[in-house]
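User: Structure with zinc ion, tokens only please.
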Amino acid sequence: MTKQPVTRHTIFQYSLMSALLDGIYDGELSVNELLGKGNFGIGTFDALDGEMVILDGECFRLDHTGRASRPDLDECTPFAVATNFVPRLRRSAPANTTREALAEVIDEMLPSSNYMYALKITGRFSSVRTRTVVKQERPYRPMAEVTEDDTEHTFENIDGVVMGFRTPIYEKGIGVPGCHAHFLDEKRELGGHVLDFTIAEGTIELCVGTDLELRLPLTGEFAGADLDPDDLDEQIQKTEVKE
Ligand SMILES: [Zn+2]
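Assistant:
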């Protein structure tokens, strides 16, 4: 049964997934300003200098070693999604569930797949496999080439949060269709872009997004980017899903 949300909720996004794929790795939105758009979010930093997590109003950088640190607030991002997370839907995760199986549980929780969702899975993970992008130097290469250099990490028996956004397929090119999530451990020391995980026990929380505030960069590079490549699906698969 599909239901409609009863409350409007805005999700903020800076730039486009298709711009990132085209190698637009520098933006003009500071972490400081981004934090004003939400206490929860994911993204990356200029020059792809790590994966970004915003949790409880604090911003973290997850570098290519898998370690978390605090960025300067005047650092900029070329791509980020943020919102003020309100857990409107909540349930416990079935014990010892893989990412694939949990995706079905989450789908059942959604009132409709036609809205956007911020997603937070808090608990103990028997394993989390992540990747992190490596800081780039100009001239920038397209993302499909860059992510071949990613480093992967597997964290085992770790408490933390898998968090991100579930984006409808019709937003392809704007965002990453399906779930795009990052991991940060409970001690705020480790994490990365999530490729796979198994949750031992935990809680799933969802915040339904009905409004999208999209901010496009005012840079010459963005203005000149190719945002409609023929192989968009393939590029997203290669850079974000890595299967
Ligand atoms: Zn990511």
